[in-house]
Amino acid sequence: MVGEFEPAEPGRCQEVRCPCHARTLKLDISVRFKSRQSAKAKAKAKAKAKAKAEAEMRIGELARRTGVSERSLRYHEIQGLLSADRTPGGHRDYPEAAVDRVVRIQELFAAGLHSSRIAQLLPCMRDADGGPSAIATPRLVEDLTAERARIDHMIADLVRSRDTLDEVIEAARER
Questions:
Q1: pTM for the model
Q2: What fold is seen in the domain 56-136?
Q3: What is the pLDDT of residue 168?
């Protein structure tokens, strides 16, 4: 638009005559400019938030990366097997190391250990490779040996059960 006009008061319309089109226009314009400093501060805060978001993950991301349900992850937290920071909004934020921790927990569950036993053993184990941590004691070896003996006993019981089933199956085939 060609022509000059005085800026309107905020919240008020101003009529301006357009010399090119011989019309009167109503303008309601309020423009606010942000200083460069606040834009820089915003960009810095945004970059910081992005870096934090990349360094930590929410429960859904941890569940996706480990193949463990969100409900199981919450259970692990209740049992003291896993910990998470909280955002100001109350969401769980897990560090990258939580992936290894969850994998280790799942391996111990698969080995037949229950959550209270896992809670006793985890502080003595490294998450990344399952080896003993710096605070591991000789008691760890005793506990793990006892768990192995328990599992061996369970395997022997299962083998006996399978042998019994094989005998019943064979007897049924002969009839």
A1: 0.56
A2: Multidrug-efflux Transporter Regulator; Chain: A; Domain 2 (1.10.1660)
A3: 95
